[in-house]
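BUG: 3D viewer hangs when loading the predicted structure for this chain

Environment: internal workstation, default settings.
Expected: structure renders.
Actual: progress bar stalls at 90%.

Input used:
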Amino acid sequence: MGGRDAMQVEVKDIAKLFEQDGYLKPFEREIRRRHGVLQDWLGKIKDSEGGLDQFSQAYKYYGLHFQPDNSVIAREWAPGARDVYLTGDFNNWHWEAHPFKKLDYGKWELHLPANADGSPPIKHLSEIKVIIRNQSGQLLDRLSPWAKYVVQPPKEANQGVNYKQYVWQPPVAERYQPQHKRPARPKSLRIYECHVGIASQEPRVGTYDEFADRIVPRIKKQGYNCIQVMAIMEHAYYASFGYQVTSFYAASSRCGNPEQLKRMIDVAHANGLYVLLDVVHSHASKNVQDGLNQFDGTNSCFFHDGPKGEHSLWDSRLFNYMEYEVLRFLLSNLRWWHDEYNFDGYRFDGVTSMLYHSRGIGEGFSGDYNEYFGLNVDTDSLNYLGLANHLLHTLDPEIITIAEDVSGMPTLCRPVSEGGIGFDYRLGMAIPDKWIELLKEQSDDEWNMGNVVHTLTNRRWMENTVAYAESHDQALVGDKTIAFWLMDKEMYTHMSTLSDSTLIIDRGIALHKIIRLITHALGGEAYLNFMGNEFGHPEWLDFPRVGNNDSYHYARRQWNLVDDELLKYKYLNEFDRAMNQLEERFGWLHSGPAYVSWKHEGDKIIAFERAGLVFVFNFHPQQSFTGYRVGTNWAGTYQAVLSSDDPLFGGHNRIDTQGKHHSNPEGYAGRSNFIEVYAPSRTAVVYARISD
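Structure tokens produced before the viewer hung:
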């Protein structure tokens, strides 16, 4: 910080931070110091580039660019290279025929004039490679880090498995032009986490066009208003779920070409869906010939050299966030997906790992603030995340950013102007862990209601959380979805509406519904569901790999199950839709936190108020209660607006949804009124006030 006293660093709205959490006050110096580092970077970028706006559009400078006269300019950043060349179909693969000119700061540039007939020297879909001569004189073939379109050769071509770069410069008439405006940013975010490749019912990779035409309408019908799309950034290893990125500027070609992805996003917008990209800037694939690793012939370039540049658990490379050109590459990458493809926001993968490289993935956090403001925090990563959020929210205030963070770091989801890191939401990652723990390790009558409430409400004040009962993590091979933990092999034999019900299926359907509703209503300020889990998709996810003979059997979604009127999956699907529609009507996700008035261990009942609604959950495996008192601060007449016991949802129809419940002005459970309700075992009922 150039000798400045950290306490003198200007943080515009830091007072708001301490108003919300006085326990942060002892760490004011460190908060100001971190903010000062960010300001220093912004100042440096402004002095050298004119500002973050220009700095974050490097994709207009680097890579391959066709000029108005049809000449082509290619630029790369390869600081460790002795020489750089461009080769490909255009020069019959003569590796050294077209050398780049060396510029300052590790930059290289090549001008290719137009052909004699005025046509460009490189054609659309022609294959190219960057050739690097390292310091020992060895020639190495690479893909450009700025490649927009890379494709794996088909097996029958016998050309190996490495991806190839193809020039993406289609004729103007073939470029997709968006037809629809982006929908307004949702006040209540109901996220459908999805993967285009496994969205196909057939045992193969699904396509962008299929997703747009077949899956987007399903998502809209279910009442979601946002999709979070995984595995878009190109990744050579399909089974990595998109988390081992090899080409950061290329959309995955398994599912189609760039224009088809643009159409998919446009169709989502036409259906009122916000579209978030699952962005992976926490690490990168170790692939060399078709990845970023050792691009310039050295072990550093985009990454730290030595152990600091290796993620041993993920077997991947770690970015050097203090390198000027690395910041340019990553910040421009965020802007690229927004400007080129019209993504509306980002879910940042691996934030906890970025911030705490010294900790194991599963290593817990005690909540001691010294953990968050001490020496074990990687402040380079922290600075990058602050810059990224500052850029994105300055570029477009409607952008949404979500942090995959399990640490609970204070200020992560507060604005940069307050000294925060600037995310809009963090994932409530403790919630799915709690549900799996209960289902795996405890019988129903052992569930502790206070512990359930604590897990669902234990989040930082004024820092938004995305609640979810399960995500893609729980669906992966080696784990089980909630539906499979609940019903397991009986899902194969007893999900027909024509067959006799079993205790296991009855219990499974009942708990699947109330687990999701209490998570939705109590767990956060946004809600997330992974594709297929809304209807209890059986089995697990397992991508084609050597260990399963490259099978796609478990790398797909069996939509036929939920579409079959004779199967009970439809009950879970209908409840999921009704739950989302009720939230749309009353808006509990953006109405402030719930007030929990009741959590009774013996009765296994939890009751709370939120958004003018009264929620009553009975987790008891056998016992039902008549005339059960539930406190409320709002006097009036109440009626059930959602019952998990409704026959439409596979319930037993024990709730009279037409019944009226008049409040009693006597205080109860710390509230000024109460109503009396029937609470059947393993049900959730939501009551709304229909009159004063």
